[in-house]
Design a protein that fits this description.
four-stranded antiparallel beta sheet, single chain, binds adenosine-3',5'-cyclic-monophosphate, 159 residues, 4 strands, Alpha-Beta Plaits, NDK-like_dom, metal ion binding, 18% strand, alpha+beta, nucleotide-binding, EC 2.7.4.6
Length: 159
């Protein structure tokens, strides 16, 4: 088996998840998968941060509505690490439109919407790096050894 590459990724647990009491459920799914939480905090997003984070959507008709929704309550931001973490988390989140997301994914199980779709997850290693820097100060990220590491990955993957 090929040696795996450690990646970091960012998840934003959105205001709809907070309002619908889904924080524990979402963190539970990410933890249970074997991802390592290296940063976690609650924060309120403002226009400046949302303008940066969703810059690629700024000309879309849903941009103002999206910002209003993302400011409607605090969010939880989580930085996670693991081998192939970006793809693993994207698969756990499911595709944007909740109604069409597979059952078993976060969006498939908890969302009917394109906007109120419970979580945001970084779409590439490069984006993840920028997004983690955007939402976390260096001292808010933690480097530590997780005791279940050798049971989450096979010996050859860890080599
Ligand atoms: P996210 O993964 O955070 O990335 C961009 C966000 O824009 C997306 O999740 C949705 O919350 C939102 N979004 C994408 N497409 C639409 C749409 N057609 N209408 C409303 N909101 C959308």
């Amino acid at each position: 088996m090929q040696q795996q590459k450690e990646e970091k990724t960012l998840v934003i647990i959105k205001p709809d998840a907070l309002q619908r009491n889904l924080l524990g459920e979402i963190l539970r799914r990410l933890e249970r998968k074997g991802l390592k939480i290296i940063g976690l905090k609650m924060m309120r997003l403002d226009d400046l941060l949302l303008g940066e984070h969703y810059a690629h959507h700024k000309d879309k008709p849903f941009f103002e509505g999206l910002k209003k929704f993302m400011k409607s309550a605090p969010v939880i931001v989580a930085a996670l690490s693991g081998f192939n973490a970006v793809k693993a988390v994207r698969l756990i989140a499911g595709p944007t439109y909740g109604a069409e997301a597979d059952a078993g994914t976060i969006r498939g199980d908890f969302s009917m919407s394109t906007q109120t779709n419970i979580v945001h997850a970084s779409d590439s290693v490069e984006t993840a790096e920028t997004e983690i820097e955007r939402f976390f100060k260096p001292e808010e990220l933690f480097d530590y050894k997780k005791v279940d590491f050798e049971f989450i990955y096979g010996e050859e993957e860890r080599a």
